[in-house]
Every structure is written in C-alpha cells, then in structure tokens.
User: Fold this.
Amino acid sequence: MSAALGKIKGFDQRFLVIAAILFAILLPFFFDRGSSFMDDAVLALAYVVMALGLNVIVGFAGLLDLGYVAFFAIGAYTMGWLGSTFYSQANGGEGVHLLVTGAAANLPGIHVNFLLVLVGAIILTTIAGVIIGLPTLRLRGDYIAIVTLAFGEIIGQVAANGDQVRIGGIWDKTLGALPLIPDLGSEATLTRGKLGISPVDKIDLPFVDPFTSLDIRSWYFVALGLVLIVLFVNVRLRDSRLGRAWVALREDEVAAISMGIPTVKTKLMAYGTGAALGGMSGAFLGSYLNTVNASQFEFIFSIFILAMVILGGLGSVWGVVIGAILLSFVNSWLIPDVLNGLPGQLGLDFDLTQVSFAIFGFILVIVMILRPEGLIPERSRKQEMHGIGTGDRAGAGSDVELGEAR
Amino acid sequence: MSDAPIRAEKVTKVFGGLTAVDGVDLELRRGEVAAVIGPNGAGKTTLFNMLTGLYRPTSGRIRLGERDITRARPDQITALGVARTFQNIRLFPTMTARQNVMIGRHSRMKAGVFGSIFRPPWVNREEREAEERAGEELKFVGLKADLLDRTTASLSYGDQRRVEIARALASDPHVLLLDEPTAGMDPRESAELAGFVLKVRDERKLSILLIEHDMKVVMGISDRVTVLDHGELIAEGDPAAVRQDPKVIEAYLGRSAA
Amino acid sequence: MPVAFAIHDLTADGSLTRIGNNLVDGVSNGAIWALVALGYTMVYGIVELINFAHGEVFMIGSFIAFAAFGWFGMDLNTAIPLLILGLLLCLLISAIASGTLNAMIERVGYRPLRDAPKLAPLITAVGFSFILQNVGVLWLGGSQVSVPDLIGSQDVLFQISGVEVTNGDALAILTTVPLVLALTFFIDRARLGKAMRATAQDPDAARLMGIDVDKTISATFLIGGLLAGAAGLIYALYQTTIWFHQGFEAGLIAFTAAVMGGIGNLRGAVIGGILIGVIQQISDNRIGPEWTPVIVFAFLVLVMVVRPRGLIGEETRQAG
Assistant:
C-alpha cells in the first residue's frame, strides 16, 4: 500500500521535474532577447547554482557556512584573471590567448576559453573550500559559522585591497619563469579593488557565435545548463553513500564516527563540492556581469544565498531551487521595480531598495520561527527542526562528549 | 603471545582531576564472550570509548591483534573490524532502519564524490549489495519486515536495540562491543537477548565484549568476567570465581544491594 | 607581539614612545570592545547562542546616544558640570534602550527556538542583525555621521615621556572599569547573579531549584544590552563618528574577545577585548588601517581554531 503510494508519488515527481525543465527551456522564447525579465532570469539561474552549492554544505552536511561569498569571489576572479585585459602586460604585452575567438583573440591580457575558466574556477574553489573547511571541522557548529564568516570577510577585504598587492614581480620570478606559464609584468596586482576588473570576456563556446550583452537568451541557456548539472550533482549526492553519511554526521556525530564515517574527510567533501559549485556560478557571473569588483563580495551576499536555502528548505533540492528563484526575483524585480515606492505611498520617507538587507533578515527570522523546515521541507530535516533527533543531545545523558570525540 | 583480538594494556583516562580508568589491563580472547561489570561510575563506558577510539587514553596502549591502535581514530578502528553499540541507543533517528544499517556498511564501501555523482556500475552494485545486506542483518536480528523502512524514531525500544546491533554487524566486525545491551528490558527480553548474543558469536565467529548490569545475563553467557570499581580492575576470571570474590561482593554490597 | 614591537622601536627610534602610544590607544579602544564582549560572553554562557545581533544592539546604542545629545541640546559650549550631568543621563538612556532592545530580541527571536537545533536561533540572530542595520541606515543614512566632539576626544589630558593619554582614552577606561567591577560584583553577590550562574551551569537543575529560567535569561540579555548601550555612547564620544556598519565589526571583534577569554568568563572577555584593541592599533599604525580588518579576522580564525576554549581561564560550562 505505502509502496504503491510511493510509486505514484515518484511518478508524479518525475513528471513535475520534466515539466519544469521543459518550461525553463521554452520560457525565453516568450520574451525579448534583451528584456529585463531575461536579465532577471539569468541572475536567478546563477543564484540557483549558488544556492544548490551552499545546500550541499549547509543542507546536506549541516555545516552552517556564513562565508559562502568567498567562493563567488574566487570563481569570479578566476574569470577576471583569465578573461580580461587586466593583466595587459602578460607575455611581454602580447597577451595570452587560449582557444578564444572574436575580439578577445586580439586583445592584450590573458584570454582563456570559458569552459577552461570554468574548470580553473572549480579547481581553485575546491582547494579554497578544503582550506577553509579544514580548520573548522573540529569546531562546534556555531563556531564554524563564525570562522567561515571570517574567512569570507578576509577574502572580501583582500579583494578590496588587492590593488595594492603587487604580485607581478614575485610571479615572474617564480611560477612565471616556468615554461608555458606567462609572465605578468611587474605592475600586475592581485585585484583591481573597488574599481573592478572590467570589461570581462564574454562566454565563448565552440560552434556558436561569441555572446553579446544584447542577446541574453544565449546566456540564459548556459545558466540553465549549469543549473541542470548542479541539480544532477545535488540529487545524486543526496541519494548516495556520501549523502547518508552527511545525514548521519548531522544527527549524531559520535555515532557516525563510531560506525566508520571519517568526519574530516566526509565534511571536507561537502565543503569542496559546495565550493566548486559556487565557483562555477561565480565564473559565470564574472563574465555575465562584465565586472569583477570587490564591492560584489560582501557579507550580505552570503546571507542572501543562505536565505534562499533556508526559505526553500535546508537540504531540500527542489525547495532550494524555488527559494533561490523566489528571492532572486524579490531582489531584482519585486523590490526595485514593483514595491519600491510603497513606503512612499504609505507616507514614509524611504525607498524599499534601501531596506533590502532587512527584508532578507526578516525572511530568516520569520522562516526560522514559523516554518524552520522551509517551503518544501526535506523529510529528515523537518523532523530534526521539530526536535526529533537533533544533534544537540547535551544534557540528555549522552555517554560521550563531542568535545572529546575525534 | 596470547591470542587476543583486542587488548588494553595499563590504560588510564583522566578527565580534569578525575581518574575515570586507572591502569586497567583487559583482553578479549578469540571467540569468547567476556563481560565487564562494576557499579555505576566504575569506568566501564570510558574503557569502551577508549577501545573504540572515541577517547584517547591518558596513558597505556590498546592493541588490535598485533596492531597498536592507541592513537587511531574511531572510523579507522571500525574499518579494522571493531563495532559497537551504545548504552543509550544512538541511532540516526530520522533515517529508516535500513538506512541506519547501511551506515554500518559505510567503511566497507568506496563511492566518493565522483563515484556518487557519476554512478559507474561498481557503485550501483555496491549500493545494491549494501541495501540487501542491510535487509539481511535486520532479518537476522529479528526486525519485522514491515518495519524496515520506518524511521527509527518511530520504532519501539526493543526494536531500536535490534537495529543498533544490526548496524554494528553490518560493518563486518570481528570484535563486537555491546554497552549494556539489556538496559531497559524485562527479564524475558533479557534472556532472549542473551541467547541471541551467543548465536551471533557462533554464527559470525565473533569475539564479544559486553558491559552488563543484569547478573543473570552475565553469569549465563560470559566465558570470563572483569570487574571494575572506581576505575580500577578489582577482579577477573570465570564468572563463578568472580562471584565469590570478596572484593567484588564488597564493591557491590558496599554501595547498595544491587 | 607588543613586546616584539617594543624591542623593534627601541632599536629603531631609541624610545618606547610609539609602542606606548599604541598601547594606550589600544587599551582604550579595547575597553569599548570589552563592554560589548561582556554581553556576548554572558549570553553565550547562559544559552549557548552567538547573539549575532549584539553588535547591532551596540550600534543602536551609539545612535540613541547621538540623538540624546541633540535632545538635551548638548554641544561644544555646554558648561562642564552640565556636560557631565547630561552625559550621565545620556548614558542611562542609551544603556536602557539597548538593554530593552536586546531583551526584546530574545523574547521574539530566540525563546521560541530554545528547543530547536542550535543553528536555528543563530540564523534568526543573523536576521535581526540585518534588520537592525537597516534601521540604522534609515535613521542616519548609509555613511559616517559625525558626532559633536563633546569631550575633546583627541585633546591630550596628560603625557608621560611622550606617551599621550587623551580625553577619549580616559573616558573609555574610566567608564569601563567601574562598570566591569559593578558587574562582577553583581554576578558574584546578587541573587539574580547567582541565578544566572546556576542557569549557565545547568538550566534544568536551576529550574528544579525554583529559579525562573526564562526571567533569568531575559535579565542576562538585558544586562548584556545595557553594557552594549553604554559602550555605544562611549564609542560615539571616543570616535566622534558613527554609522550603521560599526556594529558588524564590533560584534565579531567582541565575540572573538569572548572566545579568547573563555566563553562565560567575564574577566577573560575584558582581557580579550583589550588585547584585540591593542592588536588593531598596532596594525593601524604599522601596517595600514585598510588591512586591519584582515588582521583582526585572521586573528579571530586563529583563536577559534587553535584555542576554542579560550586563551585565558576556563569555560563555566562544559562544551557538549
């Protein structure tokens, strides 16, 4: 009986998913190629990728990461470094060109094909994820939140001050001196601070014309492709040996480690994967937004993405997708275009865009108090949020303290 | 060299100023059921936590066969073939019974990030086998078939105990540590469980160490008994002899008529 | 580290004036962090929650103080006796406002989640932090606002062989010391203080002993907020500029100080706050203020990772 029900539900879900994907594919044909709706839609998809990445860390593994912006930054800078005229002195001023066509092929600076940049961003962010994750893993959950937040802030501050950091000299004497690796010139700096690296190369894929900022439809399909990849990764990981191990660690770390789950390795896999997905989206956004700019990488961004995950439902793949789309449109359409004048109409002296931070903060508070499992809850998370089997067994006569467990 | 699958040599554990276990020697022999008994607070669970790597001994060594595992992590020790249950059951409450037991298979499986995402045939096979194995173990411990896919939070106390044992067995251990397996059971259930422990030992060729308060169970199934009091080993030997030991009688009767 | 810089200064300039000034500035700035850190450590000690909004409660304290200066028409021409009276009144107002705010946040945002997983109230705390930041933006705008320099913050009060102690330094230190002494005395002696200690050790046992745990927790938030409000006023007078974002960094610094001092340990939090103040000054003065946040955050990571149980003293409650 219950098995049959499950089958029907399973069928329904599959049907829904296919319908949603078809809808997403057809959607852009109802809108103008350069419309602001398409612009909002591309951003929404990029944020879905981020939110699903953060979902691996926070939702699956239960590690509250308040510094996810770090991976956005690293992904975006990978795009900026490898796809702009920023390092204009590279290779003695002639530039480096790797599998790029169109305008970028003749410009100075480093210009690498987008797909390779994507790979680079994945590698760099995975490493960053592991580096950030490693020191936090022995800490209690709330300390993890603060340490990741601090790492995110460090990356943001380094980005902001990176225009003072001259890396060119050291680079040219070390890595740049190796064969095949270009020199950068002694003037090269780490970032361009708040001025930002701009313009950034447009996506350049084999067999299609280089992208332009006028035709957003092609960007949309690339973003949708990334979403599908990341969805696949999320679903597969959730229903796997690793996914089970994450739930186990979340619910009872001592029992999990006693049953043979290596805590450090298993958690690092969550950090690394989540970071890599953020890096992918970051590289995409670097190119799409046409600037890589330190003011993009502030704490509020981490909270923006976290609010998507929490609103949708921690650990719930489809919930997170919906949460991300909702909040993204709230941010880029509802607040600035629809409701912006609302306070004014009510006789208040401010615009709604001024308080968008508070709106996301408010969403966090309201969801946590009224419906902590989110809009579309994931089953085990729902029970955990309502006090069944939380990891917090302190005082319940547990026979091992987590502080002692290794 | 004695034939001991797991052995503690002069292990001591100090918490702050309190010595929970004080220079205890303990060995579990191949194929036996041995019991650790002692009044509350005698250091029994602390000893277990050291054997399974949750605590690192302040001094002393722990050996698994010839191998020194004093500094090994719990997951490494599980992978080397030591499994345990907990005094107050520690299942993953929102997972089903079957998923819980599949966690026990974790150390025998290999799928990592890429394996889990791309699912090559070996990963699918591994998952399927783990699922089947989980079903078998749950059947072996006597969980009713219709409870396999229920979350363990919804299971009765006795069934939760069964699932916990199945989870431990799923990791292919050669040493099984049971921390008060009959806690909270009535005499009939306890007797049943005692019989089951012997069955597990014989069918799985295991060596079993258990902490137990129920003297009937201890005397009924143990080949040897070790008695701890205030963290120190006060007696060791076959059950009948230990029962007569004046120090043991005093340790128990000195406190209460338990 | 200060010692290393002292030796460096001795060899470079032949005097200890520079490090001496760093230390004085650092200690006075750190005294403000210490007041904020006390609220953090008390709250964490009792409910094991990182009250992420605490920094914003401090910021609101600064804003209220600024407004109160206006209400009382205090400016640079106010006579000194009146000024002192006015400032004391403002201190009272900003402390009570921040304390009430903090207790209200607890009531609305944390109490309903006391049985939920620990991350839930932390998330609402982050939410409140953002809400309050926006309150700040709407109140005084998105940039720095200057506060009338009522005490002549940078005026040198006295000098010892080149090391200058300004009015601001004196204010910060002379307000913090009595507040901290009063607080520790209160916690050690007063009935409520004892209830707080009992609740911190074991809420269930405290309840059995007839302690009203909810009320005790509210009181803890109230006291923490009072101190943050006081710190807000001192900060406004000391820095002479305030803005909505000051609470974010102050909160993180204060939390680091609390962790450093050992969560729940009041004296530890004070020492931690002062230590961070000194580190900031040295970094501002020798590396460049734009890098100070990086230094502070790196230090935060280091403390949390290497000594999560504190550099000084012990936790009042076992981590578990």
In short: Chain B touches chain A through 49 residues (CB under 8 Å). The mean pLDDT of chain B is 92.
